[in-house]
Design brief:
Number of strands: 10
Order of helices and strands: EEHHEEHHHHHEEHEEEE
Shape: elongated
Largest sheet: 5 strands, mixed
Length: 293
Amino acid sequence: MTAESPLRYPNIKIENDTDYLEIKVVKYEPPGFESNQFAQRTSSESLVKNIETPIETVFLPIPENIQDSNSVDWGSNSLNGIAARAIGVAKNAMGEDNAMKAVGELITGTGGLIGGLQKAGVDRPKVQNFFAAKAVGALGFNVDAKSVITRSTGQVLNPNMELLFNNVTLRSFSFDFDLAPRDKNESKTIKKILRLFKKSMNAKKGGKPGIFISSPDVFKLCYKTGGKKHKFLHSFKPMALLNMSVNYTGSGTYATYDDTTPVHMKLSLSFQELNPVYSEDYDTEEGSLGVGY
C-alpha cells in the first residue's frame, strides 16, 4: 500500500525547488519462467507495477559524492592452429553415420588433422610429437604437448590470442548521508527512515517460518529536481539494499537530546542493481534521460 506522504529529511518540502534523491521501497516480484520462450523475463520487468505503487517513499538530500561506474567483463582467450583445425574437421565429421570412421577421418584422413597440417607445410614429426604427447598425457603421465614441441623444435604453438567478451556485470552504488535532527519532528522522521530501511532490506519469514523465507523488499532510486526527473544525472535500475550502517556518534562524540535522539548520525547505504544494463536500455524512456544509465 502506498504511503500517504513521503518521509523526507529535512522536513521541509525539498521536492518543490531542490535537487534530491527519491528512494521508493518496492515489494519484490520474482520474474518467474516462460516455458515457451528462450528469453526469460527480468526482475526489473516484473517490478513495473509495484514501482508505481511503492510501499513507502523517502526523500533525502543529494549525496555529496555522486558517481556511476559502468563495466563489462572481457578476457583473453587463445586458440592454437591445431585446435582450430580440429574444430573444423570435427564439424565435418559429425555428419558421418559411422562413428569410428568419423574419428579416423578426424585424425588421419586426407581432410583430417594430420593430412591438413602437412598440406599446410607443417613437418610431420612436429605433428607426431604433439599427438604422441597428448596420448601419453591421457594415460596419466604429466606431459605437456606444447612443451614437447618446444623441447624438440624450439618453437611454440601460435596461441592466436584475442580479447573476447565474457559476460555482463551488475552495478553497485554507495551513498552517505549526514542526519542531524533540528527538532522533535525531524527526530521522529529519521527514526522512521532508519527503521524502514532496516525492515525492508531483511528477508521475511512468511506465514510458516522454518520452511521458506521470502525475498526482502527492493528499491527504486531516482535523482530529481523540482519534482521531475533530473535532466542530466544517471538513472538506476531496481536495486537490492545489500548493506546499511548507521553511526550514531556522527561527530565523534556521544551526545543526545532530551528524548535520547542522537544529535548527529551518519547513514551509509550500499545498493546493487537486480539486472545488468544493456545497450538497448538507453533507447527506453528512462534510459534516454540525461546521460542514461
